[in-house]
Design goal:
It comes from Rehaibacterium terrae. The chain is of the alpha+beta class and 441 residues long. It has helices spanning 20-38, 48-55, 73-87, 99-109, 114-137, 140-156, 163-186, 189-202, 210-217, 255-265, 305-319, 328-335, 344-347; strands at residues 225-226, 233-237, 245-249, 272-273, 322-324, 375-382, 387-391, 408-411, 415-416, 419-420, 424-427, 435-436.
C-alpha cells in the first residue's frame, strides 16, 4: 500500500497559501447574507404561468382512458364467450351460459360498441335459423318458445326497427309457408293444424300466410270421410318420404257395384269355390250366384284377385282417381287388431253367408267388415306368385278365431265364396278433397 505524501514532502511552490482560506470563507458568508436580504417573499411569487394554465379551456376527461377499451379486458372476454356459445348453438340454454344473456350483458356495458352490435345481430340471425329448424321438424312447442325469447331479445337489444329483425321475421315466415305447403302436399291434417295454430300465434296477419292458413285448416285427419266421390272414402294416412297419402274404402265393393263393372266391361265370371267346403268344390257358382242369398248391398264374392284389379283400373279410368288393392302392410295398419266377440250380427263371423257391407260395426278409422263378413284380396303375392294374399276373417270363420284375420296365401286365378275386396286411393299432392268428421261407429 502506498502511503500519501506528507505535507512536508510537497514542494513549497505547490503548497496552498494559508491566508487564502479564511478570506474565501468570509467572502462567501457576506454574499449569502446579501442574497437573503434581497430575495422575494413567497407571496410575491410570479403566478402568471399557473394562471394561464387554469384559465385555458379544459378538455373533458376521456373515460376510455380510465377503463378497458371495448376490445380488451372484461368486454373482450364477454364477446369471446358469446361467439363460443353461438358456435356450439347455445342460444338460450344453459342459464348463465348462452348467447342471449352474454350479448345482452355486453350491450348493457358498451351499447354502441361495433363488436357488441355485430354480436347482437349474429345472435338474432341464429335464433331465426333455429326457430326455422324447429318449424321444419314439426316441433311447434320449441319454435313458439324460442320465438318468444327472440322477440324479447330484439326489444332489449333495440333491434326491432332494424334489418336484423325484419330478416328474422321473414326467415320464420318462409319456414312456416314451406312447412304448411309440405303438410298440404302430404295431406297431413294433424301437422297442418299445429302449424296453423303456430302461424296464428307468430305472424297472424301477413298476407303471404293467409292462403296457407286456409288450406291448412281444410286438411283431412285419419278417420275423416272424403266428400269428393260417391264411394265412401276414409282418409287413413298422410304421405311419407316413400309413400303417397292414402284413403281407404269404408267398406268392401258391393255386388251391385261389381255388376255395373261386369256389364260395362263385359268381363266374364271367374271360377269360384268354397275354401273349406270340399263337397261343393265343383259346384257351379260365380259372383252373381255364390251359393247363398245376396242382394246388391252385400260384398261381392267369388271374384279373383285379377277381377279385383280389373275393377280398380276400370273405376280409376271413370273417376280419375288412383285406385288399387291395398298391400299387406297397409291392410295391417288400417285394420288394427280384431276386437269384439266376433259374432254374426255385429261382426259377420260364424254366419250362413254374407251380410250387407255397411251393416257391421265400424272399427278403426270407422272402417267396417275388416274382421268379418268377407276376407279381402291384397296386392301381394306369395312364392312364385301362383298364390295371392288375402286378409281378414269371413262369415266362414267362427267367432274367437283371431288368427283367421292375418294375411294368408291362397291359390290365385280363382274366386272364393268368402273373399271380396276393397280399394285404397292414392292422393296426389295437388288434390285437396274436402273432408267430414269421422264415421260414427
Amino acid at each position: 500500500m502506498t502511503d500519501a505524501p506528507h505535507p512536508q514532502d510537497i514542494p513549497a511552490s505547490h503548497r496552498p497559501r494559508r491566508w487564502f482560506v479564511p478570506a474565501a470563507i468570509t467572502l462567501a458568508l457576506a454574499l449569502g447574507s446579501l442574497w437573503l436580504l434581497r430575495a422575494p417573499s413567497p407571496t410575491g411569487l410570479d403566478t402568471s404561468a399557473a394562471a394561464a394554465v387554469d384559465s385555458a379551456p379544459q378538455r373533458p376527461v376521456d373515460q376510455a382512458t380510465l377503463i378497458d377499451t371495448p376490445t380488451h379486458g372484461e368486454l373482450a372476454d364477454l364477446l369471446a364467450a358469446g361467439h363460443r356459445q353461438l358456435a356450439r348453438n347455445s342460444l338460450s340454454r344453459p342459464p348463465g351460459g348462452n348467447a342471449i344473456e352474454t350479448f345482452l350483458t355486453a350491450f348493457a356495458r358498451e351499447p354502441l360498441d361495433p363488436e357488441v352490435q355485430a354480436g347482437l345481430r349474429a345472435t338474432l340471425t341464429r335464433l331465426g335459423e333455429q326457430v326455422a329448424r324447429y318449424i321444419r321438424e314439426g316441433d311447434t312447442a320449441e319454435a313458439r318458445r324460442l320465438h318468444g325469447l327472440a322477440r324479447d331479445f330484439a326489444v332489449r337489444a333495440g333491434l326491432t326497427t332494424e334489418d336484423a329483425w325484419r330478416g328474422f321475421k321473414q326467415q320464420v315466415r318462409d319456414s312456416l309457408i314451406d312447412a304448411l305447403a309440405a303438410s298440404v302436399a302430404a295431406h297431413d291434417g294433424r301437422r297442418g293444424q299445429r302449424l296453423v295454430e303456430l302461424a296464428q300465434a307468430l305472424d297472424p296477419d301477413h298476407p303471404d300466410l293467409r292462403p296457407w292458413l286456409e288450406r291448412g285448416t281444410r286438411l283431412p285427419r285419419p278417420g275423416d270421410v272424403l266428400d269428393d266421390h260417391a264411394l265412401p272414402w276414409v282418409f287413413f294416412a298422410p304421405a311419407s318420404d316413400t309413400q303417397p297419402a292414402l284413403a281407404v274404402m269404408a267398406r268392401e265393393i258391393t255386388r251391385g257395384e261389381y255388376a255395373e263393372f261386369a256389364r260395362a266391361s263385359g268381363r266374364g265370371p271367374a271360377r269360384c269355390q268354397g275354401r273349406f267346403a270340399l263337397l261343393r268344390l265343383f259346384q257351379s257358382r260365380d259372383w252373381s250366384a255364390p251359393g247363398f242369398a245376396q242382394d246388391d248391398t252385400h260384398p261381392v264374392v267369388c271374384v279373383s284377385p285379377e277381377d279385383a284389379e280389373a275393377y280398380a283400373r276400370w273405376l280409376a279410368e271413370r273417376s280419375g282417381l288412383r285406385l288399387r288393392l291395398p298391400t299387406a302392410a297397409e291392410w295391417r295398419r288400417f285394420a288394427g287388431p280384431a276386437a269384439g266377440d266376433g259374432d254374426c250380427e255385429r261382426q259377420g263371423r260364424g254366419c250362413e253367408g254374407t251380410r250387407p257391407a255397411d251393416a257391421l260395426d265400424a272399427g278403426r278409422y270407422g272402417l267396417r267388415g275388416l274382421h268379418g263378413n268377407v276376407a279381402e284380396w291384397l296386392a301381394d303375392c306369395a312364392g312364385d306368385c301362383s298364390e295371392r294374399l288375402a286378409a281378414g276373417a269371413s262369415w266362414r270363420d267362427p267367432a274367437g278365431r283371431e288368427q283367421a284375420t292375418a294375411p294368408r296365401a291362397v291359390a290365385g286365378g280363382r274366386g272364393y265364396d268368402d273373399v271380396g275386396f276393397r280399394l285404397v286411393r292414392e292422393l296426389g299432392p295437388d288434390e285437396l278433397p274436402t273432408a267430414s268428421p269421422p264415421l260414427t261407429p
